Amino acid sequence: MRKPLFHFLIGIFCLGISSCGTTNQVAINTLEPAAVELSKDIRRIGIVKTKSSVQNLRDLKGLGKAIANEDASLSEVGQEAALNGLLEELMADSRFDSVILLKNEADLTYGNAGTPSEVSWTAIQKLCETHKLDAIFSLAYYQTNTQYSLKKTKMARADMIRREAEVKGHEINLETLIENGWRIYDPFSREVLDEFVFREELKTSARGTSPLRALMALNDRKDSLVFKSKTAGHAYGARLQPNEHTVYRKYHVKGSDNLAMAESHIADENWDSAVALWQRDTNHEKDKVRAMTCYNLAVFSELTGNLEEALSWAYKSDEHQHSKETGEYIETLKLRIAKDQLARKQLAELGR
């Protein structure tokens, strides 16, 4: 996240979500606090990858062995891309004085509880002392698992005088699951500060006159894997910063003439006119209509970033007519207010 997030973009989705079409939805961009909060004392970061296990190729034959060999090569490239993605993200974070990528792999082993062993904590501490680091970010593991299928097909092939003729061929389809797990270690408190796993699927296909030639024709597989891996590295680094998230809220479009007319204004993106009509119905003779109108005004207030006002309208809606749905919305708004305050505090600390 590179820009200040003190505004909320309005997106309108006129999608009926009830069987009788009495409600529509609106999309709201919320500000979520960082998933990981680091101590202000952590200023110098080291990035490592752990030693990965090598697949035993002894029992594999033919095409399966060729794919496994290619996956082993791609895994190395993918790991480097993931680490560089994280490096770029952390270097752009003004909180850190230095971020270095340690070339040597760390031999980190884990106990039954999934926490580093005594030997591993000693190794982490030694790395930090040697390079004067406050914390270690680790690409704890990176795995690719590929399944493939083959089918016979027809394909065009040019002969010696460049005439194209239809010949028998093979089509190969590969589905690769890319998994990369990340951890943050505090060497002094001996805590794993965060642990997260990304999973991505990569699908590729190509044709060739033989299964092996079809495999060799998968030209874009490496580029796609590098892109996804680097994106995962960036995404992990972004867990240290507040981010935008889209939520959907329903609002009422039927129950009174004003509610129905307001919906036509919203379709034209004329929210001022819709709000004016809702305001009229806050004094409607029916409790149900007053409750629906106050609910709509709560959603609009949330949409424009006025969360305290949204909560006030939600309480008024519940007073006019109590419902489980309104009660849940009230609790949602309370949580949103708490998260928003934390996210703004985090942004202030980032100087944004």
Automatic annotation (TrEMBL):
PROSITE patterns, A to Z: PROKAR_LIPOPROTEIN
Matches recorded under Pfam families: DUF6340
InterPro entries for the chain: DUF6340
Superkingdom per UniProt: Bacteria
Protein name in the entry: Uncharacterized protein
